[in-house]
Amino acid sequence: MINGYFSGLNTLFAPTGKKVISTDTPVRTSLWRAGMVSALALIMGACSSQSELASDTAATKTMMLSGTGSDDAVEWDFYCDKGRNCGEWSKIAVPSNWELEGFGGYDYGHIREKHNEQGTYRRDFDVPASWQNRTVKVVFDGVMTDTTVFVNDQQVGPTHQGGFYRFSYDITPYLNFGESNQIKVVVDKISADKSIEAAERQADYWVFGGIFRQVFLQALPASHIDWVSLDAKASGQFDAEVYFEGLTGAETGVEAQILDMDGKPVGKPFSAPLQESKAVVSTAIANPELWSAEYPNLYQVRFTLKAGTDTLHTLNKTFGFRTFELRPHEGMYLNGEKIILKGVNLQR
After folding, report:
1. How confident is the model at residue 222, as a pLDDT?
2. Spatial distance between the Cα atoms of 146 and 161, rounded to a whole number of angstroms
3. 151 within 8 A of 175, measured Cβ to Cβ
4. CA-CA distance, 107 to 236, in Å (whole number)?
């Protein structure tokens, strides 16, 4: 490529019938250097663009459908079937508990006969056409309590039960890419599962209903890292189990690199082959800065799913090196130092 470029420069600078400027003249030397700089800039720019494109393809895309809290909450259409302001469509902030927004009724956990509202949420959203060949999930960080999700009037999976942890659905088959879509979320405040109702809501605190944590879309490569389990000890030993979805058989393994919070590498890269739908990676870091409540030092780890030399998906996680121990007859220790517990708060 470079030789061809400079052949073109020779032709440009010495057209037929014209006298060629000597290569030892300042003019020719200046033109030659300018051509070399231009060629190298083109090559490096092309390489950089290809690298950015590969990185962009391997990254997880995110689209918020709600706010992240009360300060930036997003309004959805809302219908509550019982209690205050029931029986008609209106608007509600997401995330929130609907009692605090003027709907339904308040209940304390110890009360056996509670208000039993059902709330229906609805909003439209656009999905980029560029997500066509990706796996798209809708993720809920917390909903009280039983949640049934529809996209474009089709139920996308079984009803999720339980209010205090994240759940998601693969909604790829139900989407219209490059067009408008509608999501509908039906929430029952009282769980149909008696064990969940007893564990989460028969307690010494107020209990609520609604989408009270953020909602967002994730667009992932078809073959991707689903979730990871990390164990980073105070000794510097780091172990992780990495789980995958959408594997085709072309994937060869996972690579990992620990980074500081500025993105600088800490230690050497490490890797492991796939074992069915997971991989186990390990390394050790000399003298890591430990995590504690007083000094919450943090690191990142970047996982990369590979197919030979090709990067399929990258995922970053934040963690701290620390070791908790519960020693018989002695109590709790963090990083080898005893922690004295002076009180326990029963509330969540």
Report:
1. 93
2. 4
3. yes
4. 47
Q: What share of the chain is helix, strand, coil (3-state, %, to 5)?
A: 20, 40, 40
CATH code of the domain occupying 63-220: 2.60.120.260
Predicted model pTM: 0.78
pLDDT per residue as tens digits for the range 2-34: 444 434 444 333 344 444 334 444 545 554 555
Give the pLDDT band of residue 271 (cuts 50, 70, 90): very high
**What is d(CA 244, CA 224) in angstroms, rounded to the nearest whole number?**
6
**Which top CATH class is 226-320?**
mainly beta
Give backbone dihedrals phi and psi of 117, rounded to 5 degrees, phi first.
-80, 160
Q: What is the pLDDT of residues 74-98, one digit of tens each?
A: 999 999 999 999 999 999 999 999 9
Cα–Cα–Cα angle for 265, 266, 271, nearest 5°?
85
Q: For the residues of 100-167, what is the DSSP string, one character each?
A: GGT-B--EETT-SS----EEEEEEEEE--GGGTTSEEEEEES-EESEEEEEETTEE-SSPEE-SSS-E
CB proximity list for 67: less than 8 A, separation 6 or greater = 73, 74, 93, 94, 95, 214
- How many of the other CB atoms lie within 10 Å of CB of 117? 22
Domain parsing of the chain, residue ranges: 2-58, 63-220, 226-320
Q: Which amino acid is at 346?
A: L
